[in-house]
Sequence to fold (396 residues):
Amino acid sequence: MLADSHNNQDVEKAIIPLMVPAFEGNEWTYVKDCLDTGWVSSAGSYVNKFEQEVIRYINCPYGVACMNGTVGLQISLQVLGVTADHHVLLPNGTFVASANSIMHIGAEPIFVDINSQNWQMDLDILETFLSEECRQEKGQTINIISGKVIKAIMIVHIYGQICDMDKLLALARQFNLLVIEDASESLGATYKGKHAGTMGDIGVISFNGNKIITTGGGGMIVSENQDYIQKAQHLTTTAKVANKNYFHDQVGYNYRLVNILAAIGVAQVEQLEQYLTKKRAIATHYFDRLKTISAINFQETNDGVEPNFWLIGFCSDRKKQLMHEFKKQRINFGHFWTPMNKLPMYKNHQYIQRNNVTAKVANQCICIPCSISLTLEQMERVCQSIQKCFTLNQLK
Ligand SMILES: Cc1ncc(COP(=O)(O)O)c(C=O)c1O
Fold:
């Protein structure tokens, strides 16, 4: 599965990117078709085809394509009935868009720490918070500190891993909370055979340029609930009423994905299976090659989870040395996000934690190259650089 590039004399000198998209299929053909036929905007057959192909792949009955994952999350919250009167729980370690989407509708996020093994929301901390710091009233869960209703959990499948969804969904049922899956990073990842995005009430996938498949910018809202997706479709298309001239029955949004981008998406989804196989092969290769270095702790995989390995990261207390070595070897790397509670607009929001694991992961995590196009030689260069940092003072 892994490409061999013995013939490329320049590979040693070239920068190894962290993650770049691959366009090896019908992308040019389908985009040309849009340009040739003039179907470039939000009406056009590629948008519907893209929706059909993605929902077929993830085995979910309904989906609607939108401009990006961020607006997909915003619309999902709206169709679930989350309003400015509500709280939404989400992990403290996530990309800022998850939290922003909650703020965009005027609701208030509550951040929950992540755990040190799989870096997903810590469900024990969540359970203690819901049991001990909230009260039940008329079938609703009220946050004692603010007196506000907690309406939903936005679970983020961080880096294409998935938490113990059985436990999360049981907690959601017990406390009468809706579940939005921020599956932006996790297309193709599964939990006990079910695809990320299809286990909660509603799910959102991103097709940003850095995702496993991309439309440049794009997103999709998916659900088993037809009503949610119909509402999402309506809201994302300026709430236009069918068969009536310019009649709109709500303040809607111009959020529908455009045909020219969906055309790229159709070509990308044709290659998704192959990309997932490659991503998993890259991860297996790194794990195998680096297993003797006990001082690096890769993000762990929960039982029942088949990750998509969107990003591959580990924690190490030698992050500085690793960064120095990677820079020297022209290897690009990535950091974990700044924890939400450390951002100016979120620092005064409630953060539920015991040992502030998000801070530790943010300080120690380093992500290593994992593009679909990564070669064996490039991986070897990465592994040798890592090894060097641990052999300088003996292997731990
Ligand atoms: C966890 C997470 N949530 C939301 C988003 C937002 O998606 P988009 O960039 O498509 O708006 C991203 C990534 O971009 C993400 O990684």
